[in-house]
Every structure is written in C-alpha cells, then in structure tokens.
Automatic annotation (TrEMBL):
PROSITE patterns named in the record: TPR
Listed cofactors: Zn(2+)
One Pfam short name: Peptidase_M48
One record GO biological process: proteolysis involved in protein catabolic process
Alphabetical keyword list: Hydrolase, Metal-binding, Metalloprotease, Protease, TPR repeat, Zinc
Domain Peptidase M48, chain residue ranges per copy: 43-228
Record-given protein name: Putative Zn-dependent protease
GO CC aspect terms: membrane
Length: 448
C-alpha cells in the first residue's frame, strides 16, 4: 500500500466532482474521497483487463475506488472507471464485480460519453496540471482537505454535461457488456444478480436510493432483457480461480482498512492460514495498534509471498507508520525491485527515505521521487515529499516549483502563484522548470 494517514486508513485524496456526475444532489459540487492503494488497484485491474480487451478499448483505463458506502459505479471520461467502496463490499463474486466493469466499459465503447466530453471543452486553467474529469484533486496530506478551485460552470450547465444515462443507453450497454463477458468466459448471470441488488429502489424517494439508480435507470423491461441475454450466453461461462483470488484480495484488504479492527479479527478465523487472511490480520493489528503482532503477521505474509511487490509495499507501510524508517525503506526497496514502474510504490519508497533523513537517504529519495512524479504527476502527497527532497538538496527553486504545482493540482491557484513566482525568481530563465512556473502563473491569472 502506498501509505496511510494518521488514522491508519487507506491513502485518501479528496476530490471535488460536480454533483451531476454522482447524481447525488442539486448542489453544484460534492466532495468525495478517492482511496489509492497499489495492491487494490492492481487487483481490480486484473478483473477489468479481460473486459477492456473485449471492448477493444485502451489498456490504460484505470479503476479508482471512491470511499462511499452507497452502491454506485460511473464513468465520466474514457480513461477511468469509478466504483464506490460500498459496491465492492456488496457484491459476492468476481463475476458480479466484472459485470459492473463490463457495463461501464460499454458506455465508453458505445460512445455514450462523446457528447458530454465534447461539451466540456471549456476547462479551468488548472486542468493543465493534471486535474482529471473536471475535478480538483485535494491535498494528499493528513488533513486531505477538499479542493475548490475548479471552474465547471453553473449547476445547470453541469447537469446538461453529465446527465445520467438514458434507458436506451442502458439497454445497449447491457447487451454489449454481456457480449464482453461471454467472450471472456465470465458468467453473464452475474449481471442479473447485480441488478437484483437494486430492484425495487426506483419506487423509493431520491434521498433513499443508491446513486446507481439515479444514473442507471432500472426498469422491469431492462431486467427482463438482461435475464434473457444471460440465459442465451450461459454456456459461455468458465470457472476462473485467479479472478476469484484477486476479487477476494481487493475486497478483503478494503474491508480491513475501512472496518474496525475488532470486526476484521472476528471475521478472520485464527486458524485461517491463507495469505489473504494473514494480510487482513496484519492490517487489523496495525490499526489497533498492536505493532508487535502486526509486524509478526506481515513478516509471515512476506515469507509466504516473497515475490509479491504489494506484500512488501504493505510491509513497508506498516514499518514506516511504526516509525521503523530504516526497515521500511528496505521493504519498499524490495517492492520497487519487483514493481519498478508502479508510481504509488515509488512514492512510498521515497516517503520512507525522506523520513529516514540521512544524507544518503535524502539523495536517494530525490531520485526515487523524481521517478514517481514522471509516472504520475497528480499525487499531491508524493509532491510534498519531492519538494522536501529538493529543499534538502539545496535546490530551493525546484522545491518552490513542485510546491506550486502541488497547490495547482489541488485547485488552490492563489497559493500556487505565490510559490510559482518564487520559483521563477530562483530558476534559470528559459529553463524547463522556469517554463513550468510560468504555466502555473498563467493558470492562476486565467482563473482570476
């Protein structure tokens, strides 16, 4: 895991989404929390990738988890699927979760977002710094405060851009999704099972409905059609133990971080020696906190899965948050050696090296965090650590620039401009860093 905040939760990044995206209220914006974890994101990708391929879409599509107990999943561009933690916890099988992914991918493949994306061309100047989907990514710090700087227009125009799917779109997405599932040997009945979770909600008032119903209209005709399609494709289903494993791992880890440690320890039997059970116990003991037991369990897990980068990443996290910085850096280094291109793992390694705070660790932290930024320049917490590493190296110009960009991607362009002006005065005129500072200043000026 990339790291957790003081309360031992998943890495949380606050974002501001216009309300029409979530169909949750008539307000112009709503703060939500994105949970970042390399293990969970990897597991969800393993489930989504066959369906992405079946849909003929780019394999760069990512699945991101929204911390919300309500049941929902949605797409607002062609590169991301957002799924609520509540829906992951609700579904019972890998096939059910894959049915959700297949349906959202069908909306992308069928062009249902094209008109909405075309209407969203007038974006805030801050978008050039990595703001996605007309949202502002909040600071990845312990406070994780929601940003408020993105200009998306009035509530009425936002609603026109991000209207919920029509019944015709839902029908075509169902048919396409079931084809994707059948092509990959995934039991299409799972889609009918997912829709059964929502059956009857349309008669409830809006305040009591799960948001999925408001953005994905469900009717008796649609239910009947899905059951018919599922029956037609039923012979295509093939067992997939690997998919079930990644589903259980993602769901188990998410549950261990979101539920009380006592709940997890009651659910996971002491005699259960599976790797997922050991992982969940390690997380639960870490969150109690019971450092001795947590480290014993995570060491046991590392021995069980010595070549699993995400296990070593979690071990690094537990050690880092237990203030064992040298051991944490070693654990993260092992994770990096196994997954050298994972930005979240690189960022965690850099964080441990910054915490160690020796001359050699600070120099190494700078290299690692520069590599992390090259992979993902939208992680505010990583950027905070990178600015610290630059400052310790005596490069105050780059420290100010990275700080400016961190504030820019959180939507705080006023503060970003202060740091960008300082960076421009310290960096050589015309250099790449100086030009980036000018970009921040220009965005701040346009935002007014």
């Amino acid at each position: 895991m990339a790291g957790i905040f003081r309360a031992h939760s998943l890495v949380s990044i606050k974002i501001l989404l216009i309300a029409a995206v979530l169909m949750a209220s008539a307000l112009p914006g709503r703060a939500v929390t994105i949970l970042r974890d390399p293990d969970i994101e990897h597991a969800l990708r393993q489930l989504a990738l066959p369906l992405i391929n079946a849909a003929g879409l780019s394999t760069n599509i990512r699945v991101l988890v929204v911390r919300d107990p309500k049941l929902n999943a949605f797409v607002v561009d062609t590169k991301h699927i957002f799924i609520h933690s509540g829906l992951i916890q609700k579904v019972k099988t890998a096939e059910e979760l894959q049915a959700v992914f297949a349906h959202e991918l069908a909306h992308i493949a069928n062009g249902h977002l094209t008109r909405r994306l075309a209407n969203r061309r007038a974006a805030s100047g801050a978008a050039r710094f990595g703001l996605l989907l007309a949202l502002a990514v909040g600071a990845g710090t312990g406070n994780a405060e929601a940003a408020a700087g993105i200009a998306t227009g009035s509530a009425s125009s936002a609603s026109r851009v991000f209207l919920g799917h029509t019944r015709a779109e839902e029908s075509s997405a169902d048919q396409a999704a079931l084809r994707y599932m059948a092509q990959k040997g995934i039991n299409p009945k799972a889609m009918a099972d997912v829709l059964d979770y929502f059956r009857g909600q349309e008669v409830l008032n809006a305040a009591r409905q799960d948001p999925y119903i408001r953005s994905h209209p469900l009717t008796r005709d649609r239910m009947r059609a899905v059951h018919g399609y599922a029956a037609a494709y039923k012979n295509a289903a093939k067992p997939n133990p690997e998919a079930q494993y990644w589903f259980a791992r993602a769901k188990g880890k998410l549950s261990a971080f979101l539920n009380a440690p006592s709940f997890t320890l009651r659910k996971v039997k002491k005699k259960d020696g599976s790797d997922i059970a050991v992982m969940r116990r390690a997380i639960a003991y870490h969150r109690k906190p019971d450092t001795k037991r947590a480290i014993a369990e995570i060491n046991k897990l590392a021995a069980m899965r010595p070549n699993d980068p995400y296990v070593h990443e979690l071990r690094g996290q537990i050690l880092l948050e237990s203030r064992n910085y040298a051991a944490a850096a070693q654990a993260y280094q092992k994770a990096v050696s196994l997954a050298p291109r994972n930005a979240l793992i690189l960022a965690g390694h850099g964080r441990a090296l910054v915490a160690l705070n020796t001359r050699s660790s600070n120099a190494q932290a700078l290299k690692v965090l520069v590599a992390a930024r090259a992979r993902d320049a939208r992680d505010p917490r990583m950027m905070r650590d990178l600015a610290t590493a630059y400052a310790r190296a005596g490069n105050n110009g780059m420290a100010s620039l990275i700080t400016a960009e961190r504030y820019a991607i959180t939507g705080n362009l006023k503060t970003a401009a202060v740091h960008a002006k300082r960076a421009a005065g310290l960096l050589p005129q015309g250099s790449a860093g100086w030009n980036r500072a000018q970009d921040v200043l220009g965005a701040a000026k346009r935002a007014g």
